[in-house]
Specification:
Length: about 250
């Protein structure tokens, strides 16, 4: 494992690169955590291990205001995350060993994966949104996030539910994002993994994304929640099988 920072327009992003043993040139998957998340969460580690086990390198990166990266949590927005992710993609493309590039992300990182897929469709062999939180722009337009109701036409400067404090800019930005446009722009293969008992991001969003994408496959994890705490092994197996097939088909 190599630990380092990637520059994103002056913001330092904390990164870890895990390469399979004895790997020379080969594919790389970028892996991003969710809202309030970081790169050491159980489901992120499980995903990293599954992808490594299939012989694919993994670059975990923490976005603005999360983990050990620069920025305050309350000041993070999806535009900042998009800027960060574009920097990470550019960095990954500059690595000598990388052949094919993949992008995976959990929840808000899954939403980010869908946005970047649409923005950089030529850069990825596949994208892999995990429980993607792509309802965030919709609920921001409706005026209710994190269970906090607000007037979507008169956004307050601060949003808080007691535990979490966010700048109103978070929803100002989110309101402008139209995920369907980016879904339409990405014609390549998509693997979606989502627990069908997720009470944070409704499973129906995974089904809708599968329908809207040109070439998507949804693997439901029966009875599982947002972070796959009940059947982490099944999420692991789904990713390992997917990447095993990618490697085999490329030989
Ligand atoms: C919300 C529900 C879910 C929300 C964010 C999320 C900002 C994201 C969850 C995650 O990334 O795990 O209302 O509002």
């Amino acid at each position: 494992m190599k630990e380092f920072y990637i520059d994103s327009d002056g913001i330092k992003l904390h990164a870890k690169l895990d390469r399979p043993e004895g790997a020379d040139k080969g594919p790389l998957c970028i892996l991003i955590h969710g809202f309030t998340g970081h790169m050491e969460e159980d489901h992120i580690i499980a995903a990293q291990k599954a992808i490594n086990e299939a012989g694919v390198s993994v670059l975990r990166v923490e976005m603005y205001g999360h983990g050990k990266s620069d920025g305050e949590f309350k000041n993070h927005t999806l535009y900042k995350w998009v800027t960060n992710a574009l920097s990470v993609v550019k960095y990954a493309k500059s690595l000598d060993f990388v052949t094919d590039l993949y992008l995976a992300g959990h929840s808000q990182g899954g939403l980010l994966t869908m946005l970047i897929g649409g923005m950089c469709p030529d850069d990825f062999k596949s994208i892999i949104p995990l429980s993607p939180a792509w309802m965030i722009p919709e609920i921001s337009r409706e005026g209710n996030i994190l269970g906090i109701p607000f007037d979507p036409d008169h956004i307050p400067d601060v949003l808080t539910n007691g535990d979490i404090e966010l700048s109103g800019d978070y929803v100002r930005v989110a309101q402008t994002i139209h995920v369907e446009d980016e879904i339409a722009r990405y014609k390549g293969p998509v693997l979606i993994i989502h627990g069908d008992a997720d009470d944070v991001v409704p499973f129906s969003y995974a089904e809708k994304a599968e329908r809207l994408y040109n070439n998507a496959k949804l693997i439901p994890i029966k009875g599982d929640d947002h972070c796959f705490t009940k059947h982490l092994d099944q999420m692991y197996d789904a990713l390992k099988t997917f990447f095993d097939n990618e490697i085999t088909n490329n030989l």
